[in-house]
Write a structure and sequence with these properties.
Layout (H helix, E strand, L loop, with lengths): L3 E3 L4 E3 L2 E2 H8 L3 E5 H14 L5 E6 L6 H9 L3 E4 L2 H9 L7 E3 L6 H10 L3 E4 L2 H14 L3 E8 L21 E2 H12 L4 E7 L10 H19 L6 E3 L16 H12 L5 E4 L3 H4 L3 E13 L2 E6 L8 H5 L5 E3 L8 E6 L8 E8 L6 E4 L20 E6 L2 E6 L4 H5 L8
Parallel strand pairs: 4-20, 5-6, 5-13, 6-7, 7-8, 8-9, 9-10, 9-11, 11-12, 12-13, 15-17
Antiparallel strand pairs: 1-2, 2-3, 4-14, 14-15, 14-19, 16-19, 17-18, 20-21
Helix pairs in contact: 5-6, 7-8, 8-9
Length: about 425
């Protein structure tokens, strides 16, 4: 279901006009649909209803407290990659024993905070991390629950910046090293082995890479079982792609049936770490056209959103749909939508056939994931407001930054 639809020439989020939100809160502004988030989470969980499972929302996709609180109310689990994300989940009402901690460079203070909180599992990504965790747990007189993140050397067929499952990627350990690392962990006094983990990349739209990775993980699970190490869970990570333009998305029921067929008689709980799938198409970035210009036959629409608000197009050359909030008069032209940031790479969309005039407003779709969370203050720009729509109501879930907010932590040198 599409929770952003045009109603008589007026683009809505659920039952709220996006123009009303823009009039109230200004632009650029991220707008999220509560119903879209709930629907995506519910569909993912329902697909695996025949087997014990946990959906660990990848907090890095969108870490707004309102988003996390909504998912916590649905009894979601969470996948974090930093101590900051740990605190966000806890403050949003998430349960510590529903948190898994991923990431290749966990620092000592982060491991201590997560151990103290009592999280469900550390996804260990290296030998040095395992040794550090053992030492910290021993010092705290706690046992650290762990899985080993295995890099299965599977090509996910996605953008190289978001591929994580190849041997040249920084994540996890090779399958050849995994068994030795599990053996070492089994002899550590303050380590409890609970699972195995892998994650091969993001925005994957083919089923085959998942099944190839799952096959390799199952082989390791069986080898560990033969060595006397019984795992409680298998974490297959995230990465299921969404439709930005014309992608053929993976059918969740087909995905679930294929995974469960490979799992066979094994009783391990299945963990998944979707982020983009839950929130990407639950959000839009609303922006205002500052003006249009023509440079030697090239048409530009300068908008008030920029690469500091939404970096995906500049970073990944990603495509996101652009739609006017209300129809605009005038001839259609092929525009590049660019922002005010002083970089040639500051574009939100290229080659879009639109009718645009100064003051028009546009929605950049699929901005719920890796939008605000990757934003910055480059050019000393204030970060955008965030709004959550709930039926016919909308709520400001993060106020627009001010220059005072930016400067609060800075100071001049003393005289």
């Amino acid at each position: 279901m599409n929770y952003f639809e045009n109603r008589d020439g007026d683009l809505h989020a659920e039952d709220v006009s996006l123009s009303e939100i823009a009039n109230t809160h200004g632009t650029p502004t991220f707008v999220y649909s509560k119903a879209a988030i709930v629907d995506a989470y519910t569909q993912f969980s329902a697909a695996f209803s025949r087997h014990e499972h946990r959906i660990c929302y990848a907090v890095k996709a969108n870490s707004n407290l309102a988003v996390l609180g909504l998912l916590a109310s649905l009894q979601a689990s969470f996948d974090i990659v930093s101590g900051g994300e740990l605190q966000r989940v806890l403050r949003a009402g998430g349960q510590a024993d529903r948190i898994v901690f991923s990431g290749v460079g966990k620092q000592a203070w982060e491991l201590r905070e997560a151990l103290s909180a009592g999280i469900a599992c550390f996804n260990v990504e290296s030998e040095f991390e395992l040794e550090q965790l053992q030492n910290i747990a021993q010092d705290m007189d706690k046992r650290a629950p762990i899985s080993i993140r295995v890099n299965p050397d599977v090509d996910a067929g996605t953008h190289p910046y978001i591929s994580t499952g190849l041997k040249e990627n920084k994540f996890g350990v090779s399958t050849s090293k995994a068994l030795a690392l599990y053996d070492r962990a089994s002899n550590m006094s303050h380590i409890s082995i609970v699972g195995i983990d892998c994650h091969i990349g993001s925005q994957i739209t083919e089923l085959a890479p998942f099944l190839e990775a799952m096959t390799k993980i199952i082989e390791l699970v069986d080898s560990l079982e033969a060595d006397g190490i019984t795992l409680e869970h298998i974490d297959l990570g995230g990465g299921i792609g969404v439709v930005y333009k014309d992608e053929q998305a993976i059918n969740l029921d087909t995905f679930a049936a294929s995974v469960l067929q490979l799992l066979g008689h094994r009783k391990q709980t299945l963990l998944f770490e979707p982020g983009r799938y839950i929130v990407a198409n639950a959000g839009v970035l609303v922006s205002t056209v500052i003006g249009t210009k023509n440079n030697e036959g090239k048409d530009f629409a300068i908008i008030d959103a920029a690469m500091n608000d939404l970096i995906r197009p500049a970073l990944y050359q990603s495509w996101q749909e652009v739609e006017l909030l209300k129809p605009s008069a005038g001839a259609r032209r092929t525009y590049d939508l660019v922002g005010p940031v002083c970089e040639t790479g500051d574009f939100l969309a290229k080659g879009r056939d639109l009718s645009l005039n100064e003051g028009d407003r546009v929605a950049i779709h699929s901005s719920g994931a890796y939008g605000f969370v990757m934003s910055s203050n480059y050019n000393s720009r204030n970060r955008a407001a965030e709004i959550m729509v709930d039926g016919s109501h909308f709520h400001e879930v993060r106020a627009r930054e001010t220059i005072e907010d930016q400067l609060r932590l800075e100071s001049l040198l003393p005289n």
